[in-house]
Design brief:
The protein is of the alpha+beta class. It has 2 helices and 6 strands; from the N terminus they run βββαβββα. It starts with a strand and ends in a 25-residue tail after the last helix.
């Protein structure tokens, strides 16, 4: 099922692939003529990659978001996925995340950030060998 809104295409996952109630939000730059973007989602990509840490860096021309999966008791972690964005798209992503977090919190309640040394596993990040952007 697809639904087009000016500048945004909302596409549902096909039944049987993840949760059919999850939407993919594609933010497109608004242009003079309405456009529709058809996006192919392979089964492999639809499975997603679990990440519990994102490391963000930037240069004058791009933002780099490395998604990492940390495991308690294991001192080493690998980057699972890297996304490179233009500054404009990074700002659009920030706006979309803020909007969706607000909607989530109005429906399910406030998301609390862990404080102090609770049950959150967050070791110091050293030796991040990603190089310069």
């Amino acid at each position: 099922m697809s639904k087009t809104i000016p500048g945004i295409l909302l596409e549902r996952f096909p039944k049987g692939v993840i949760n059919p109630n999850i939407f993919i939000f594609i933010i497109m730059e608004k242009q003079n003529e309405p456009n529709q973007l058809n996006i192919e989602l392979s089964e492999e990509v639809a499975q997603g990659i679990y990440s519990n840490l994102a490391v963000i860096s930037h240069s004058s021309s791009e933002f780099i978001v490395d998604f990492i999966r940390l495991m308690p008791g294991i001192p080493k972690a690998k980057v699972q996925s890297r996304i490179i964005l233009t500054p404009e798209h990074a700002k659009r992503l920030l706006s979309a995340l803020q909007e969706n977090i607000a909607k989530f919190e109005s429906q399910f309640g406030k998301i609390n950030k862990p404080v102090g040394n609770g049950n959150t596993f967050m070791p110091p990040i050293i030796g991040f060998g990603g190089g310069e952007a």
